[in-house]
Amino acid sequence: MSITAGNTAEFIGSGDMAVLATPAMIALMENAAMLAVAAELEPGQTTVGTAISTSHVRASKVGASVYAVAELVAIDGRKLSFRIAAYEGDTLIGEGEHTRFIVDRERFLSKL
What we know:
Elements: H1 9-12, H2 22-38, E1 45-56, E2 66-76, E3 79-88, E4 91-104, H3 105-110
Antiparallel strand pairs: 1-4, 2-3, 3-4
């Protein structure tokens, strides 16, 4: 992902500087976890995030390119646990743990 004005702390409202917003970094890491298991799910299934614990250890400026990785580290029934990290090039900018649950998409949405 290339950092633009639209994913800065200043724009999102999580801070007042034009650097990658922590909520944007977290969304990137959640997306990496979702995609890490998407091909293994049954038709009609998806995953939803339920918990995340992260640190944002380095700022990244507008124009920088960042990416996230997720490693599935445990499966307990429908509960999936991930180790997640975000990078700018080879430099770690954030890391943490993330929990997702496998759900039936239609059933989940019908309960809203």
